Amino acid sequence: MVCEMFPVGSRNFRLPGLGSYLQTAAAHGDFVAVTWGLLTMVLIIVITDQLLWRPLIAWSDKFKFETVESSDRVTSPVLDALRNSSVVGIINRYTFRPIAERFYIEMAARRKRRKAKPVSGEPRKGWTAAYFIAAMVVVVGIAAFHALLLLKGMHRAEFLHLLAGAGLTLARVNAALLIGSLWTIPVGVAIGFNPRLSHIAQPVAQIAASFPATALFPLILVALMRIGVGLGFGSVVLMLLAAQWYILFNVIAGAQAIPSELREVAALFRFQDVQRWTTVILPGIFPFLITGLITASGGAWNASIVAEYFQLKGRALSTLGLGAQISTASDQANYPVLLAATMIMALMVVTINRLVWRPLYHLAETRYRLE
User: Model's pTM, two decimal places?
Assistant: First the structure.
């Protein structure tokens, strides 16, 4: 939705597509058009799921390393129809199979010819790599020089304003992760432990997660404005929409990966709920939870650029934050502020990854790995 339509200064880049259609309808306050666009998107997601992803998931069962066939197999009428189709079998026999055989024969012949040739090109490869590295160093040096020229014109007050916005955006990202964890962890564990609930809830959650969060922003913003909630808190809700599904699906995968023997031992020793969570569930899902939180954090940072600055009914809604500063600088073609804000966001994300997520990943690998 964002990539198909965005302004840079006086220029407005727009591509025909559902994303630009929804964004244009939201900017003009045409919620009937927004509703039709959302219904079209839901239809596309459901059709894609049934015609593409569900057949692929059902087909992937043949690659599982299991000695006993699982009783909870995913079925796909489309895959069954393709497997039983004589037309597809004829096409495969006379088209794809001969092409694949010729490809593998050609690859084997090339490998034999390479082995037969004497090794004489290694110095040339070394020089090629050196030339490539030198060219990259020159390009990066020129880019850094121009970046310094851009940043040279910025005042100290603008840097301080960017740092204040960065702190507020960081607080909103962490708030979205916390709120998302509070509901996704218990719900994800419940879905992962209960196959019957998983059959019902997982398809619904997959379709909801496939829905772009930015497409719902106009409706949510109008609802928040009607109850008197400003964009300062509303942006947290919008970031939550973009981040929560990463946590949920990783928690579901972690709960399903906990061996049933551990759960049976916990039931045998009559663990209380707190003991079961602290001894079995949380340690078991910890590596998956960290993965979900990292990807959710990235989703929240990306969403901040739209969540903190949004065009609605012909006017721009914004709150103080790094995402809003990036969007405003892009609209005004203020390239020094745009560059500085982007660099601050990148440095913050890399620093958090180094100081927070990497130690937690190391803890998950060394202490909470199920082997």
Answer: 0.75
